[in-house]
Amino acid sequence: MPASIYVYCPAGKDGLGRADLEEAMEEFFGAADEHCGAGSGKAGFHLDYELEDDEDPHAWADRLKPFLARIGVRPDSTFGVFPDGWEPGQAWRRVEVFGEDRRRTDHPSK
Predict the structure, then answer these.
(1) Which domain of life is it from (predicted)?
(2) Using CA atoms, how far apart are residues 62 and 101, in angstroms rounded to an integer?
(3) Which of 2, 6, 10, 97 has the greatest number of CB atoms lying within 10 Å of its CB?
(4) Side-by-side strand order, sheet with 44-51
(5) Beta pairing class for 92-96 and 101-104
(6) Are 93 and 81 in contact (CB under 8 A)?
(7) Which domains does the chain have, with CATH numbers?
(8) pTM passes above 0.85
(9) pLDDT for position 33
(10) Nearest CA among 11, 7, 12 for reference residue 71
(11) CA 71, 73, 75, 78 torsion: positive or negative?
């Protein structure tokens, strides 16, 4: 199972919509990822990506944060970085596009 990056954008805020962000993300990742899912609801939307096996998810995350800020993603947008084979209780990374970036071990829904 490849490493995954999940991007979350809240509803009710100014900034890129889902279709525009999907297009920008496709250009950003190029051939290094596979868009593996997305969803929308009252709280906002998410875009899910799986990186190719030889890609370093943390190197991509380090580049993704300033990229999203530069292209006008919505305030309070975040993304989670889950290493290859991640299971609940293991370390993962939560990145606030306009805030903190830290490693966590709690469940991502908290």
Answers:
(1) Bacteria
(2) 10
(3) 97
(4) 33-41, 44-51, 4-10, 78-82, 92-96, 101-104
(5) antiparallel
(6) yes
(7) 4-104 (3.30.70)
(8) yes
(9) 83
(10) 7
(11) negative
